[in-house]
Amino acid sequence: MIKKGIVAGIPIALGYFPVAVTFGLTAMAMGLKDYEAVLASLLIFAGSAQFALATLIDSPINATIVPILLNLRHLIYGCILSKRIKISKPFITAFGLTDEVFAMSFKGDNERFIWGLALIAYSAWVSGTVVGVLGGTFIVSNEALHRSLVFAFPALFFILLIPNRSWNLISAIFGGLIALILHILGYTSFGILLAGIVSPFVTSTLRRCLE
């Protein structure tokens, strides 16, 4: 099942790599040392949390609290997943349970399948960070390449929505509306944070009530 997970996770890896390169570039631009950027990907493995960490590094309190708040949605992921399949190694499974791995986990019914998804996603994320750290000067100097990497993060989430179920699309639209309204009101950062926490919770509640 691990091999099946690896094969199924190839699209995730292809999307993760350029986003991780972008993180490597961002981390270096924000003043992190090369080994600190790579360690962040090795030990944290959470895209939005790592970007928040890199941009808030000058504010230790915010750099600690904001990534934790951003990842609260993973509590919901874990609850949903544990009801679907038997979890024998919760710490291993939880570490690899990113947004995209969770979305793809519905294609399998075995914990080892999820390990396969997480393994190839993790490999792409770490290797992409290394490329971003070591090749930063070349990438930034290439305008076309640099612009494409900036769009990689939102493009990854958009692509994952295309083949997914209607409830996932509803959750994305609901979260997007929350973020958009608060952005217009001048609370962009708070809007993104609130959308990430509230949207999965509200959508899962509605789904249980209506189905």
Overall description:
With 211 residues, this protein is mainly alpha-helical. The protein has 2 domains: 2-160, no CATH class; 165-211. Helix content is 81%, strand content 0%. The protein has helices spanning 2-8, 10-29, 34-43, 47-55, 60-70, 73-84, 90-95, 99-104, 111-134, 136-141, 143-150, 152-161, 166-184, 188-210. Helix 2 runs parallel beside helix 4, helix 2 (10-29) runs antiparallel to helix 12 (152-161) and helix 4 (47-55) runs antiparallel to helix 5 (60-70). The longest helix is centred in the middle third of the chain and has 24 residues, at 111-134. The radius of gyration is 17 Å and the shape is globular. The protein starts with a helix and ends with a helix. The mean pLDDT is 79. It is a multi-pass membrane protein. InterPro entries: Brnchd-chn_aa_trnsp_permease. Keywords: Cell membrane, Membrane, Transmembrane, Transmembrane helix, Transport.
What are the SSEs and their pairings?
Elements: H1 2-8, H2 10-29, H3 34-43, H4 47-55, H5 60-70, H6 73-84, H7 90-95, H8 99-104, H9 111-134, H10 136-141, H11 143-150, H12 152-161, H13 166-184, H14 188-210
